[in-house]
Prior knowledge:
The structure holds two protein chains of two kinds. By secondary structure, chain A is an all-beta fold.
Amino acid sequence: AQSVTQPDIHITVSEGASLELRCNYSYGATPYLFWYVQSPGQGLQLLLKYFSGDTLVQGIKGFEAEFKRSQSSFNLRKPSVHWSDAAEYFCAVVLNTGTASKLTFGTGTRLQVTL
Amino acid sequence: GAGVSQTPSNKVTEKGKYVELRCDPISGHTALYWYRQSLGQGPEFLIYFQGTGAADDSGLPNDRFFAVRPEGSVSTLKIQRTERGDSAMYLCASSPSGGWHEQYFGPGTRLTVT
């Protein structure tokens, strides 16, 4: 079955430490890949996206993600986490951009940042 | 400029009642999406509008759910005979057109069915 998996439900890191959030997808073809962040009371905000080309993509707020076709992964990274990064992070894919861009989301990873 | 807005922000209703959730997309955006996010889950696609027409409603869970967008701008998600299982956050997103463009999400409506 087609799916997006975020294996880590909850991650805690210290402020200033590095971060990696995992995302794996299971589809026959390479989908378009996205990372969103959701803060309490806020709408989902797009951090970055991968369509094709360079497999290391840069996003907003200092985040980056690397697409690895061989591992069907699209992990999100940040070299130094700030307390304001505490939020829920969702990996998402789109299979068909011909018409509707239906996003399929993973179950999310909640990031807690300790001072 | 103004982002996507959704009203009400919170809605509490009794089982069996009818509810309407409203979405105001970004001005000029022709594509509009509804998603439902249950507790501890990622958002799940419900329906997509391109202009006034529902181009894809494959995510609506059953015929109690219906959505309209009569003038190609504001959309209303309607739920009849609500059930406790309908309790969730309902998210709306808009984008400049179909195909791939970034979807801009509203803050959501938290629906609680008692």
